[in-house]
Amino acid sequence: MSEVGYRTRNILRLVDMQPTMTSFSTVALIIAKSEPNIFLDKLNSEKRGVINFTLRDSKRHIVNCKCWGIQACVEEYNAMLQIGDVVDVVGAKVMAITAPNSCGGLSEHQRYQPRSTLPCALVVNEGYGYVVKHNCEDVATLQPLRQLMHQPHKSMSTVLKLSDVRCAAPGAELRPAVFIDLLVVVAAVRPVRELKRKVARNGNYLMHCLELVVIDASCPDGMMFTLWHADWIRRAQYWQPGKTMLHLIDVRISHSQYYACPVLSHASCTLIYENPLPKSPDCQALLAFAATAPLKTYDLFAQTDLDNLPAAEQIQTQMTVQQIYARAEGELQDATSEHFTAVLYAMVSKFDIDGLTNCINKNKSCLRLIPSNRNDCDNEHCVLQFSMDFSGARFEHFFNINIQLSDQTGTLVESRLSGGVADHLLGLNADAFQRLLERRKTELKWRFLLKYFEVKLLVKKPTAMRKNLTVIVVDMELIQLERLIQKMTTF
């Protein structure tokens, strides 16, 4: 299998497959790939495996090709052949399969591999056939096949809007999986996470997970899209937020108990076309929307959205701490709104101005918000830009102070005093605060701690992109005891 390319006169197109063929050879592009499945062959007590490649050699047709062999053979296929490679399939057997489902649904078998457009599949058995990379010097063959990575074989007339699929109800995770088509733009790429999965036979093994946020014009707040496949995680590192468009075919949608909302995930049957061509009017409209959509980082710290706070004079509805929690997460919750405002009369029971997260940094390149104890952004684009053509300060500092507000019904622990509001109330900015003596910092803290204030708040409920409740101080004013009693009595 180490040999690259081959020469034969019997190269056929995928559309020429017939179930009677026992030595079929073709040149095609890998557009999807499964993880290798290794198992113990009970007949000879050796480990064998199988891996599936989804192949394409024209704008219309795709087929699946299963490669069987001993464990080393299958693992070599997995390491050697990647999504986007043009390969030579030599000596494959053609098998008849059930005709593609014309009703749009997926059969039980089709859930584990992409849907073929032809009633045949290829099988490559070790010792009888093989798959290798095509000759890299054959540009005339490579170029048109590689372009197929951007040319969907399926019409975009079947794509749904994100706003239509966000209505998956709680409990949907207990129902059969639902697979849909979408046209979306990448809004954010989060760092790759490592997870340990426990397997009965082999113990723990390490898995990688990449979470993205995707948007369309109907859902600018975005939906979570999770990738588990190593090849797609590798390719996703080059996707650009606001610019990379994805045509997702048979992507799985389910209700996540962790995020308490619908999420998208790549499944064994999912196909992804990056920056689809030709650019249809729908594609052009989506890219135009993404170019003008407000820049969001979708990070936990960034959810404060300090540039779009409501005017303090417009916040009039008085609430207690108990009522705020009830409306945000409890029995008074309104599903039609993701945020609300409130006026709270309470004592500042905690003012964490000397804590580790009292200031955070905004990256001047990507505008992401990161804790002040970190010196670098993990965004590869920022690292590259800073190293090449960026001069001056890399970060802008601003306050992010956790304060806790207590009244007769309880304590609101999620409140944060941030940005320009904090600068105004404290009388200095974050850079000046860093230069203060510890004595002055303590004096500043006791200007607020254990005193009563009229506090105007913007409350943002938990969402898929922000799992925790966020409470932002829009304004706060010291209140005298007589006025506090009057407000509490009237209320």
Question: Which short descriptors sum up this protein?
Answer:
491 residues; alpha+beta; 19% helix
Characterise the protein shown here.
The chain has helices at 71-80, 139-146, 162-165, 230-236, 281-292, 321-329, 380-388, 419-426, 430-434, 438-446, 481-490, and strands spanning 24-33, 37-41, 46-56, 62-70, 86-96, 120-125, 130-133, 178-189, 193-199, 203-216, 219-227, 245-256, 261-265, 271-274, 339-351, 359-363, 369-371, 395-407, 410-412, 415-418, 452-460, 470-478. The protein is α+β, with helices and mostly antiparallel strands and 491 residues long. The N and C termini lie far apart (79 Å).
Helix segment tally: 11
Computed Rg: 28 Å
Number of strands: 22
Overall pLDDT level: 83
Coarse shape: elongated
Give the amount of beta strand, in percent: 35-45%
What percentage of residues falls in helices of 4 or more residues? 10-25%
Give the helix/strand class: alpha+beta
Cα(first) to Cα(last) distance is 79 Å
Sheet with the most strands: spatial strand order = 1-3-4-6-5
Low-confidence stretches: 299-304
User: Largest beta sheet, briefly?
Assistant: 5 strands, mixed, barrel
Brief synopsis:
This protein is an alpha+beta fold. It contains eleven helices and 22 strands. It has helices spanning 71-80, 139-146, 162-165, 230-236, 281-292, 321-329, 380-388, 419-426, 430-434, 438-446, 481-490; strands at 24-33, 37-41, 46-56, 62-70, 86-96, 120-125, 130-133, 178-189, 193-199, 203-216, 219-227, 245-256, 261-265, 271-274, 339-351, 359-363, 369-371, 395-407, 410-412, 415-418, 452-460, 470-478.
